[in-house]
Amino acid sequence: MIALTRAVSDSLSDCELTHLDREPIDVGLAVTQHQAYENALRSLGAEIVRAPAAPHLPDAVFVEDVAVVLDEMAIITRPGAPTRRKETEPVAQILARFRPIVTLEAPATLDGGDVLQIGRILYVGRSSRTNDAGRDQLRRHVEPLGYRCTSVDFAGCLHLKSAVTVAGEGVILVNPGWVSPSIFDNMDTILVDPVEPMGANALRLGTEVIYPAECPRTADRMRRAGIRLVPVEMTEAAKAEGGVTCCSVVFPET
Ligand code: CIR
Questions:
Q1: Sign (positive or negative) of CA dihedral 238, 61, 3, 175
Q2: Is residue 197 a contact partner of residue 179, using CB atoms and an 8 Å limit?
Q3: Whether the CB of 209 sits within 6 Å of ligand 1
């Protein structure tokens, strides 16, 4: 497994914010938490490949948004926030070592945080970041490979994967206030605890799940369902509207 990551930028406090009010971010603590997050990835067998640091791009740490990596190809996105479009090129150069690359073009916009892969289905959130042209271009690249792209409407959070992620084989973790669980066919569902609305973002690697320590009630629900968790502290990324999936792109090396 490769986990592509990118350093926390000194300018993280100037990040894009959509649903949250700006709060002071402790960048030093964000760096420490990011190192622990990378260690959690390593502990689950991933090799960390870091894109070059981009100190002047505040949101560069949220590398998930600039690429969707499938077994057959990597799709470099055109992020919905114009401030984030300079993030793509260095990531594309790295991913070209592992996969054939295709690139989404204007008028498409798409953030990787809006693309939830479950087997051969790519659920694509319709959001302030991802438009229909983005979904359509993605579809044109992946349908010939046997993938299906399905649009998902959601509300209340930035990205589809803030509202739903895969927590285990055949199991999704969902905030039902933000997306309807019924959209995801044939999946068992774990709902977030109502006091932890941000708790639906979990990062599954093999049989384990990297999960924010800030959501203990939802963590208990997952443990009761037999899911093994690796807790990480994500308080500073959360203030920038990021979570555990956002800070890496994980894929098999070949
Ligand atoms: C942004 O608004 O783009 C960043 N501040 C947060 C991006 C988080 N990424 C994600 O959920 N995939």
A1: positive
A2: no
A3: no
For residue 34, indicate whether it is catalytic: no
pLDDT digits (tens, 9 = 90+) for 67-99: 999 999 999 999 999 999 999 999 999 999 999
Quick check: 66 and 247 in contact, CB under 8 A?
A: no
Per-residue pLDDT at 254:
87
Å from CA of 62 to ligand 1 middle: 6
The residues, ordered by sequence, that sit 6+ positions from 140 with a Cβ below 8 Å of its Cβ are: none
**64 within ligand 1 shell (Cβ under 6 A):** yes
pTM value surpassing 0.85: yes
What letter does residue 233 receive in the DSSP assignment? -
Query: How far does residue 15's CA lie from ligand 1's centre (Å)?
Result: 8
Which tens digits make up the pLDDT trace of 88-140? Answer: 999 999 999 999 999 999 999 999 999 999 999 999 999 999 999 999 999 99
Q: How far is the CA of 81 from the centre of ligand 1 (A)?
A: 9
Of 92, 108, 106, 6, which Cα lies nearest the Cα of 49? 6
Q: Which helix (H) or strand (E) holds 82?
A: none
